[in-house]
Amino acid sequence: MKKKNIINLIKYYTEKNDLLFKNEAFEIARFFDAHGDQELAEYIMSLLSDVNTFVPQEIEINSSFMKKLELTTEPLPLPELITGDIKGMINAINHKIGMNKYIFEGAPGTGKTETVKQIARLLNRQLLSIETSELVDSKLGQTAKNIVSVFDEINKLRYPTNYVILLDEFDTIAMDRVNENDLREMGRATSTILKELDRLNEGIVLIATTNMYNKFDKALIRRFDAVINFNRYTREDLIDIAEIILNSYLSLFSNARRDIRLFRKIINLYEIIPYPGDLKNIIKTSLGFSNPNSEYDYLTRLFSHVKGDVKKYALTELYDLGFTVREIETLTGISKSQVSREMKED
């Protein structure tokens, strides 16, 4: 809790501003609750629990550029390095030390947007997404005006500490101002963003995502409190994450059986394992289109995503790929005895 909270509390009391006084008191209660003093938080809330107490309610967002996103409770497996940064980020926000602007940078499918949804859920805040592509306008100067307009809307939110703002695909409106290949209009847009970030309400948490971080203006990067790199997946991280994704979906399919060892072997056949976003789609498709009368058909379909149709492979080729006789039976439907016999003949 900052000194500003106490000063505001006294200020609103002397001004007889009941609405702002009680809102500030709620913020103080939330602070104590977040830092383990639930008893004091509950006591403050009880003092404010009379019938005339104002309780901040969720409001409808009426904006041309912002929309509310639904939060997710699905598991979001991330490497330890990224998880550690996210925990540190949440800790900094909860302690209100003036860190409220972040960049998530990384390749498509690395989990940037899904992580923002999880952060909003953990902070117990609403998530508002800005459609950055809709800010861009062909009329001279209009893009900059749209940027000013949307930041005005953000700063006028009645309860800023209730929101996380997502600037997805931030590079749409924020590129290097001195890049000769860039349009002069986008240079103006970037300059406008610099000014708007400087005046952003510090109660708002703003997260920008991009897969073109290396093209960002250095002055723009300095306006953010931290940059989190989402490209830090090792091969083993991706295999572990694929297993977590599989387990989350297998529970929905009563006809499918689990064979984690075979599953991991198939994923490991990738020369370059896809990032989680693509892995999720591949695994979901393999399960969704699998034969309900075949317990392991999803593994055969998964193999086809990675290496092509299993029927095109000789049994000895499958064996050379590291599969056991039993696993070859699972993938091909050919009995173990026949697999063994044909391999001996070869």
Automatic annotation (TrEMBL):
GO terms for molecular function: ATP binding; ATP hydrolysis activity. Pfam families: AAA (PF00004). SMART domains: AAA (SM00382). Residues 98-234 form the AAA+ ATPase domain. Keywords: ATP-binding, Nucleotide-binding. Transmembrane segments: none annotated. Belongs to the AAA ATPase family. This is AAA ATPase family protein. It comes from Acholeplasma brassicae.
